[in-house]
Specification:
The complex is a heterodimer.
Chain A (H helix, E strand, L loop, with lengths): L3 E10 L2 E11 L4 E5 L6 H8 L7 E6 L2 E2 L5 H6 L2 E3 L12 H8 L8 H6 L2 H20 L15 H13 L5 E5 L7 H16 L3 E5 L3 H7 L2 E6 L2 E6 L1 H6 L1 H8 L5
Helix pairs in contact in A: 3-5, 3-6, 5-6
Chain B lengths: L1 H17 L3 H21 L3 H26 L8 H14 E2 L4 E2 L2 H20 L7 H21 L1 H4 L5 E2 L5 E2 L2 E2 L5 H22 L2 H11 L1 H6 L4 H27 L1 E2 L6 H14 L4 H28 L10 H15 L8 H8 L10
Antiparallel strand pairs in B: 1-2, 3-6, 4-5
The chains are: A alpha/beta, B mainly alpha.
Chain lengths: 254, 358
C-alpha cells in the first residue's frame, strides 16, 4: 500500500488551473522527487498535501486516511512534515526552541501542565529538550543550538528547517527545493543527510531544480509541466522521455 | 518615602537582570520580596500602600497583557475591557446593588474565569486578523464594553456606576478603609502572576505562542492548532486583568464606566513598550515607572506648582507625558528599558527583509 496517494488532484485559482488531474503514489521508505519547470504546479501540490489549499477536485490519501479538507495542523500531527522553498523558521527563537516547537504535536502537556509545571510536564520538557539536541546533532548544528534562527548561515538554516520537520517523527517528509542556493560542498552534505533521513525510516518527497541531485538521490521521479503530470518513473527512464526533454528544452526544431 | 519603594524595586529588577550569577539574582529578588513584605513594620503611612496597591494592580495587568501581546504577538488595544469586567463582577456581586454579597476571595476566581471567558468571546472573531487590523478590532471591543456598562443602567448603575461595595474580609477581619491589606493581596497576586507567566513561557503552550508570533503558517505545519492556542492567550491574558479588576474595585469601593476608558488600555500597552515587550522583568519595570509618574510624580508636581502660586494641572498632561516617554523610548531604546534578548535582536534587525511567501 502506498504511503501517500494523490488521485486526480486538481487545484484551480479562479480561471487558472495550477494543478490538473495529477495522480501520484509514494511508497513507504522511498526517496521520490517531483520536478518540472517554474510554474508547473509542484509547490501547489505540496500545499495541497499539507492542507494549505483544499484541492478543487480529487482525493489525497495518506497512510490509509483521506486528508484533503483536513486542517493543516491535523495533517502535520498525522505524520507529514515539510520544509519551505523560502525558509520559514521562527526567526527570533533559538535553534533549539525551533526544534522543540517541531515536537509540539507529540507532546502531551495540557494547559494545566504548562501553567503549573507539573512533574509530568518537567519530565516531558527534559525529554523534549534532549531529543531536540539529538536532532540538532543529526543535522550538524549541535554547536549552534542557542543561536537565533535568523542569525544562522543560510545552509544551516536549511538544515535547521529539516531538523524541525523531523522533530514530529513524521512518516513523510516533504522538502521544497532543499538544495536551492547551496554550494557544491553543502549539496554533498545534503545528499548524505537525506539518505540518512530515509534510513531512519522516513519517506522523502522532494521538489528540486538541481537535476544532478535529483538523478543521484531519487528512486522515482514525477515530472510536471503546466499543472499536468507528463512522466513518471525511474531516473534513467525519465531522462530519456521525449516529453520531458521537450518541457525542459523546448520542442525540437522541425 | 513612596519614591523609595518604586526606585528600589526598579533598581533591584534592573540589577538582578544584569548579574551573571543565578544565585545572586535569586538573592536579590528574595531580598526585594522580603523588604516589600516587611515594609509595613517600618512605614505606617497607609497612603503609601494605597499608591503601591494601585501600582500592583497595574503590574498584574501588564503581566496579563504581556501574554497576549508579548508572547503571542497579538496586539490588543482593548485590554481595559477585561479589567472592567473583573471590576464589575465585584461591583455587582458584592454590593447592595442586587443584595448579593459574595466573598472577595471567591469573586477573585469568578472574575478571573469570567474575564477569561470574555477573552475567548472577544478573541474568537479576531482569529483571522493580524497586526493593525487586530489592533483596530480590539480597540473597538475596548470601547464597547464600558459603553455597555454605562447603558445597562438597571444593572450597573449607568454612568454613576455602583458604589458602597463590600469591604473584603480575611478570616473575619474586615479590610475596612485601610489600603494595607490590599497591598498584601496585590503582592500575593503578583507573585502568582509572575510564577504563572514564567511557567507559561517555558512550556509547550508558551513555545506555541511564540511560534505563532514568528510565523503563523509555519506554526500550523508544526501541528499547532492556532485557533486554540490564540484563544488560550486571550483567555489567560484576560484572566490576569479580571483579578486586577476585583482588587481595584474593592479598594476603591466603587465601579463606574469612566474608570475603564481607552486611556487605560493605552497606559498598559505603554508599560509594555516602555519596559520591553515579551520580557517579564521588563514589563514589571515598565509598569512601575509609569505608575510612579502617574500617581506620584504628577500629583506632587501639581502640589509644587500650587505652592509657588502656579495653577497648572500636570495630571491633565499625562497623555502628553506618556507620548513624550514613548517617543523618547522609540528614538533611543526601541527595544524598551529591559528587553528580552529576542526583542533586542528583532529591533536591531528591523530593516532586514522578511519573506512571507508560502
Amino acid at each position: 500500500m502506498p504511503l501517500l496517494e494523490l488521485d486526480s488532484v486538481t487545484k484551480t485559482f479562479g480561471t487558472l488551473v495550477a494543478v490538473n488531474g495529477v495522480s501520484l503514489r509514494i511508497d513507504s521508505g522511498a526517496i521520490a522527487a517531483m520536478i518540472g519547470p517554474n510554474g508547473a504546479g509542484k509547490s501547489t501540490i505540496f500545499n495541497a498535501i499539507t492542507g494549505i489549499y483544499a484541492p478543487t477536485a480529487g482525493r489525497i490519501v495518506f497512510d490509509g486516511k483521506r486528508i484533503d479538507h483536513e486542517p493543516t495542523y491535523r495533517i502535520a500531527a498525522s505524520g507529514i512534515a515539510r520544509t519551505f522553498q523560502n525558509i520559514r523558521l521562527f526567526s527570533f527563537m533559538s535553534a533549539l526552541d525551533n526544534v522543540m516547537v517541531g515536537e509540539h504535536a507529540r507532546l502531551r502537556a495540557r494547559l494545566w501542565d504548562s501553567l503549573l509545571h507539573t512533574p509530568a510536564q518537567r519530565a516531558e520538557e527534559r525529554e523534549t529538550r534532549e531529543r531536540a539536541r539529538e536532532l540538532l546533532a543529526f543535522v550538524g548544528l549541535e554547536r549552534l543550538s542557542e543561536r537565533y534562527a535568523r542569525n544562522l548561515p543560510y545552509g544551516s538554516q536549511r538544515h535547521l528547517e529539516i531538523a524541525r520537520a523531523l522533530a514530529s517523527l513524521p512518516k513523510l517528509l516533504l522538502l521544497d527545493e532543499p538544495a536551492a542556493g547551496m554550494n557544491p560542498r553543502e549539496r554533498q552534505d545534503l545528499i548524505a543527510l537525506i539518505r540518512g533521513i530515509r534510513d531512519r525510516g522516513v519517506t522523502v518527497l522532494l521538489i528540486e531544480h538541481d537535476m544532478g541531485l535529483v538523478m543521484e538521490l531519487a528512486e522515482r521521479i514525477t515530472v510536471l509541466d503546466h499543472g499536468e503530470r507528463i512522466a513518471e518513473g525511474a531516473p534513467a527512464e525519465v531522462r530519456r522521455d521525449p516529453r520531458v526533454i521537450e518541457a525542459y528544452l523546448g520542442a525540437p526544431a522541425p | 518615602m513612596i519614591y523609595i519603594y518604586f526606585l528600589a524595586a526598579i533598581a533591584v529588577v534592573v540589577v538582578a537582570e544584569r548579574v551573571p550569577s543565578v544565585g545572586a539574582k535569586r538573592a536579590l529578588y528574595a531580598a526585594l520580596g522580603a523588604a516589600l513584605l516587611l515594609a509595613p513594620l517600618v512605614d505606617h503611612n497607609d497612603a503609601d500602600y494605597n499608591v503601591l496597591a494601585d501600582a500592583g494592580v497595574f503590574v498584574l495587568l501588564a503581566l496579563g497583557l504581556n501574554i497576549v501581546v508579548g508572547f503571542a504577538g497579538l496586539l490588543d488595544l482593548g485590554y481595559a475591557a477585561f479589567f472592567a469586567i473583573g471590576a464589575y463582577t465585584y461591583g455587582m456581586l458584592a454590593s447592595p446593588q442586587f443584595g448579593i454579597h459574595l466573598q472577595f476571595w471567591v469573586l477573585l476566581f469568578v472574575a478571573a474565569a469570567l474575564a477569561a471567558l470574555f477573552g475567548i468571546i472577544l478573541g474568537a472573531p479576531t482569529l483571522r486578523l493580524h497586526g493593525d487590523y487586530l489592533a483596530i478590532v480590539t480597540l473597538g471591543f475596548g470601547e464597547i464594553v464600558p459603553q455597555i456598562f454605562q447603558n445597562l443602567t438597571a444593572y450597573t448603575g449607568g454612568p454613576n456606576g455602583i458604589s458602597a461595595l463590600d469591604f473584603p474580609s480575611f478570616f473575619g477581619h474586615s479590610f475596612g478603609q485601610r489600603a494595607l491589606p490590599y497591598y498584601y493581596v496585590t503582592l500575593a497576586l503578583i507573585a502568582l502572576g509572575l510564577a504563572l507567566a514564567r511557567n507559561l513561557r517555558e512550556s509547550r503552550l508558551g513555545r506555541a505562542w511564540m511560534a505563532i508570533r514568528e510565523d503563523e503558517l509555519a506554526a500550523r505545519h508544526m501541528g499547532i492548532n492556532t485557533t486554540l492556542v490564540k484563544l488560550s492567550a486571550f483567555a489567560l491574558g484576560a484572566s490576569f486583568s479580571g483579578l486586577g479588576g476585583v482588587v481595584f474595585a474593592a479598594k476603591l469601593s466603587l465601579v463606574s464606566p469612566d474608570l475603564f476608558q481607552f486611556q487605560v488600555s493605552v497606559l498598559i500597552v505603554s508599560m509594555l513598550v516602555l519596559g520591553g515587550m515579551g520580557n517579564i522583568p521588563g514589563v514589571v519595570v515598565g509598569s512601575l515607572v509609569l505608575t510612579l509618574v502617574n500617581s506620584v510624580v504628577l500629583p506632587q508636581a501639581n502640589a509644587l506648582a500650587g505652592a509657588v502660586g502656579l495653577h497648572v494641572d500636570f495630571s491633565s498632561y499625562h497623555f502628553f507625558i506618556y507620548g513624550a516617554i514613548l517617543v523618547g523610548i522609540m528614538l533611543f531604546k526601541p527595544e524598551g528599558l529591559l528587553p528580552s534578548v529576542q526583542r533586542r535582536e528583532e529591533l536591531r534587525h528591523a530593516t532586514a527583509p522578511q519573506d512571507v511567501r508560502a
